[in-house]
Predict the 3D structure of the following.
Amino acid sequence: MRTTKGYADGPFGQVHYQIAVPPAAGAGNLQALLLCHQSPSSSEMFGPAYDLLAKASVRAIGIDTPGFGQSDAPDGKHSIAGYASAVRAVMDYLDIGCACILGHHTGAAVAAEVAVTWPERISRVILNGPPVMTAEERETVRSAIQATPRITPVADGQHLVDLWNKRIRFTPGWTSISAMHSGVVQMLRAGDNELAGFDAAFDHDISVPIQKITQQCLILTNTGDDLYEASQRARELRPDFSYHELVGGTHDIVEEQTEDWVAVVAEFALSNE
């Protein structure tokens, strides 16, 4: 199966996206699903899922948040609203009138923002690990991340080992070496934008747009996710939303339990209810 990639003109320069579509199916016959990634990552975090989603008749479109993956970065401060406008730019460029949207962690904040800012463009919403936290909790996590020593390149390459160990420390219970490797590669690619992405997430109170969502919405989580408790808060905020949890896993759940994750996502995206 072939993955096509391209760029759309966005609010801060070019926005990179990738799509997997079965060769025998026309894109117009498939349900469009926008995928918004966690920080500091890229649309590559959904890599193992693209083909399976396409086989399930879902036209999955992974979007690199500005400053991550292969998308240009904002000149100034990053924000969830700015990230959301980049998603809109991709929709316009690909002539997608209406689509489902899924966001993971920071991406969940982006997805919620898109859904309430342009409700006519979004049919269904999947919030995968939505970061519902108090202002105090957001500042605590922000401070902990900012206190982590920056990785500075050194001649013997020790900084690569340090970065690997840093991500391992932030991923207790990890089981997928490929997910760990991909995550480290995306962190290297993000560079200084890593903190900017976290700042955008922690400056944003996702509970506000969550309470404004009018579309059918699924809260998706896994019991081993670092934001599992935050997802329970989202569930309490909107008990009318659908809910599903996978058992175990980490923030790399897409790669750890790809088939189960895809099954849940595709079923909800394709539902007519």
